[in-house]
Amino acid sequence: MKNLKKYLLRGTPSLLLPLGAGFVMASSADIRAALGMGFALVVSTVLSSIVISLIRNLIPDKFHLPIYILIVTGFVTLVDMLMSAYAPKVVEMLGVHLAALAVSAVPYREAEECSGHNGEKVTIISSLTTGIFFTLVMVICALVREVIGNASFWGIQIGFLANYKISAIAGVFGGYLVLAIVLAVIRKVGEKFVKEEEN
């Protein structure tokens, strides 16, 4: 239990989020893209973390990184193929960013810091928590950007908002602005939570 708390609270969320800022930005303009990327991240991170945890004692120290890369890339590729078959529109929205998840720092951080040193139970909970955290951030950003920036939800136009939409929110600048605001709120809440844990 002590190990699990340590891995769930490692670093503040404000330090964790910039590791995945690229795919958060790429998938937060539309709620469908956010949920699709969240699905891809959770599944690939959890599955690769389980495999790494199972074989951690068999991997020589100097081969950790290349083996982690092979495992993570394999699962991201499988998820990409699965989504291409069942959610091609989402894959089209995400474009190259879905494949780039294979080289994102988030699954590797999870593998190196948690899966490579712990059993399956701690690994599953930690990787699920990380994946769900990023999914929630992407969904929150997507809700703001799609509704305010495009006056739509799930790709369906919201008529009464059409005259009030702020197109800049849907663009790159708006994406960084929304992400910065969400990050500031998360950081404040995270700091309060960490202080409570320390007391």
Write the layout of secondary structure elements.
Blueprint: H1 2-8, H2 13-16, H3 21-27, H4 31-55, H5 64-86, H6 88-94, H7 96-100, H8 105-115, H9 120-150, E1 152-153, E2 156-157, H10 167-170, H11 172-198
Antiparallel strand pairs: 1-2
Number of alpha- plus pi-helical segments: 11
Distance between the amino and carboxyl termini: 18 Å
- Note the main sheet: 2 strands, antiparallel
Proportion in β-strands: under 5%
What's the order of the H and E elements? Answer: HHHHHHHHHEEHH
Helix content: over 70%
Backbone shape: globular
**Low-confidence regions:** none
Report Rg.
Answer: 18 Å
Q: Mean pLDDT, as a whole number?
A: 82
Computed structural class: mainly alpha
Q: Could you give the order of strands across the largest sheet? A: 1-2
Q: How many strands appear in the DSSP assignment?
A: 2
What would your notes on this structure say?
The chain has 199 residues and is mainly α. Strands 1-2 form a two-stranded antiparallel sheet. A hairpin with a 2-residue loop joins strand 1 and strand 2. Helix 4 packs antiparallel against helix 5, helix 4 packs across helix 6 and helix 9 packs across helix 11. The longest helix is centred in the last third of the chain and has 31 residues. It starts with a helix and ends with a helix. The model has no long low-confidence stretch (mean pLDDT 82).
Short description:
This protein has 199 residues and is mainly α.
Fill in the keyword field for this structure.
two-stranded antiparallel ribbon; 199 residues; mainly alpha; single chain; globular
